[in-house]
Design brief:
With 500 residues, this protein is of the alpha/beta class. It folds into 2 domains: 165 residues, Leucine Aminopeptidase, subunit E, domain 1; 319 residues, Aminopeptidase (3-Layer(aba) Sandwich), CATH 3.40.630.10. The strands form 4 sheets. Strands 8, 9, 10, 11, 12, 15, 16, 17 and 19 form a 9-stranded mixed beta sheet that branches. Strands 1, 2, 3, 4, 5, 6 and 7 form a 7-stranded mixed beta sheet that branches. Strands 13-14-18 form a 3-stranded mixed beta sheet. α9 links the parallel β11 and β12. The longest helix is centred in the middle third of the chain and has 26 residues. The protein starts with a strand and ends with a helix. Bound molecules: ligand BES, manganese (II) ion and zinc ion. The site of zinc ion (ZN) has 5 residues, from β11.
Length: 500
């Protein structure tokens, strides 16, 4: 889909379709009023007859509207004007996208971007609309023997902005939206791929592919030998139960000065989590193919950053293996030595994410990072705490947390901070090693983060638990591509701040 911005009157547009909003009850938006005037009351006549109430999400497609140059006029219900907030705006845009897709129009001009959304400017509205329409087109059907060839003639979508002043920033917003869509789509593809295809070596190949596609990315893939040399006993411990070799994928994006400290993104890449010897129940176990969504979001964010050619240095580090039961697998009671030298007593082999992450976090020290953010489908407890709405956010440096919260607010990709006080770490004590890999049942998301915090003392660090947000279950089962929008926004904001 091609996106662009322009500024002009709706009745003057020569296009396949012009899209305008109607508020409840039967109140024309500004742009709709323009069309109504040009058509000598055609729209208000329709509304009076009761064809459209203006309820949020309603859509009415009209043809042959008098004195209007467009072939079609699409009215979109926007609900009550004073309730028109971000959520309502998103619903309206989604309704537009669905109805346009079914129409025969190959091009459309949308005036929904002219509607006032509480606390948001026109540029946000353009970007959000492009993101929604762009990611709404995502399908994962490459493994079906027949793709359903949906007819979707719409090729070009033009967003109107209130004045010519918004054209340049509007273009930049579209560029960001395109990059974020490309990044989230990669993240979703990797997440949705089955675990017999998306293995640790497959993720290694993905890293090499990014280096092929983008000049500024260089990739190095480590295997078990190198891990042995580095002393990554925790990562290797988890990998022992699998016939697939583990991988550590290291991707460097160089967009800033060579001496500039990078932001390091570390993503959990368990390509299948059966629980290991502490095996999980069978129900919905297929969804544990999504246990590499943290890793997938690192690939996706690097892709977005490379598409935007951001002037910043970013390193992606992806530790990846399977967690399976086997005669050679880790057992409860085993003690492993991590790369940091700290020893870990394994009390539950299903708490494997923190084991592969702790070695990757120690490895990250070599980049002398400006900040490290790890992203992981780490705890079922996070789903209980925050549901499928917000990522859990924890860390050791409040300015970094606040930056992420700000990026979360502006991108709409929600995150919520949980406390990481020392008291929470006490449950990790072990009689036999420096620490155990699990605390009790209480505050599971926080004790997991507390475990990680013992490996992140050398730098500013934040942790995103995406167990509830990385994928959807049920009929709409599929990867969401989150938190690529949040991470990309965070990096965009860093660049903007560095440039004044
Ligand atoms: N990958 C899971 C966490 C998870 C579970 C994410 C369900 C999304 C949905 C992780 O490896 C895990 O198994 N965590 C355990 C930790 C426990 C053993 C302390 C959990 O959450 O039950
Ligand atoms: Mn697990
Ligand atoms: Zn896991």
């Amino acid at each position: 889909m091609e996106f662009s911005v322009k500024s002009g009157n709706p009745e003057k547009q020569r296009s396949g379709c012009v899209v305008v909003g109607v508020f409840e009850s039967r109140r024309l938006s500004n742009a709709a009023r323009h069309l109504d005037k040009a058509s000598e009351g055609f729209l208000s006549g329709l509304l009076r007859r009761g064809d459209m109430e203006g309820k949020l999400g309603q859509a009415l497609l009209l043809t042959n509207v008098p004195n209007v140059l467009c072939d079609r006029v699409l009215l979109i219900g926007c609900g009550r004007e004073r309730d028109f907030d971000e959520r309502a705006y998103r619903k309206a845009v989604e309704a537009m996208s669905a109805r346009l897709g079914e129409s025969g129009a190959t091009e459309a001009v949308s005036y929904l971007t002219d509607l006032n959304v509480k606390g948001r400017d026109p540029i946000w509205r353009v970007r959000e609309a492009a993101l929604l329409v762009g990611s709404g087109l995502y399908r994962f059907d490459r493994l079906k023997s027949k793709q359903d060839n949906e007819r979707r003639p719409l090729r070009r979508l033009i967003f109107n902005v209130p004045s010519r002043r918004e054209l340049t920033p509007g273009d930049a917003a579209l560029q960001a939206a395109r990059a974020i869509v490309a990044g989230t789509n990669l993240t979703r593809d990797l997440g949705n791929l089955p675990p017999n295809i998306c293995t640790p070596s497959y993720l290694g190949e993905q890293g090499l592919q990014l280096a092929q596609d983008y000049e500024r990315i260089e990739t190095e893939v480590l295997g078990p030998k190198e891990m042995e040399e580095l002393g990554m006993g925790a990562l290797l411990g988890v990998a022992r139960g699998s016939r697939e070799e583990p991988r550590l994928v290291v991707m460097r994006y160089q967009g800033g000065r060579p001496d500039e400290k990078p932001v390091v993104l570390v993503g959990k890449g368990i390509t299948f989590d059966s629980g290991g010897i502490s095996i999980k129940p069978a129900a919905a176990m297929d969804e544990m193919k999504y246990d590499m969504c943290g890793a997938a979001s690192v690939f996706g964010t690097l892709k977005a950053v490379a598409e935007l050619e951001l002037p910043i240095n970013v390193v992606g580090v992806v530790p990846s293996c399977e967690n399976l039961p086997d005669g050679n697998a880790l057992k409860p009671g085993d003690i492993v030595t991590s790369m940091s030298g700290q020893t870990i007593e394994i009390l539950n082999t299903d708490a494997e994410g923190r084991l592969i992450l702790c070695d990757a976090l120690t490895y990250a020290e070599r980049f002398e990072p400006a900040a490290v953010i790890d992203i992981a489908t780490l705890t079922g407890a996070c789903v209980i705490a925050l549901g499928h709405v917000a990522h859990g956010l924890l860390g050791n440096h409040s300015p970094l947390i606040n930056e992420l919260l700000a990026a979360s607010r502006s991108s709409g990709d929600r995150a919520w901070e949980l406390p990481l006080w020392d008291e929470y770490g006490e449950s990790l004590s072990s009689n036999f090693a420096d620490m155990a890999n699990v605390g009790g049942r209480a505050a599971g998301t926080i004790t997991a983060a507390s475990f990680l915090s013992r490996f992140t003392k050398a730098y500013q660090w934040a942790h995103l638990d995406i167990a509830g947000t990385a994928w959807k279950t049920g009929d709409a089962k599929g990867a969401t591509g989150r938190p690529v929008p949040l991470l990309t926004q965070f990096l965009l904001d860093r660049v903007a701040r560095a440039n004044g």
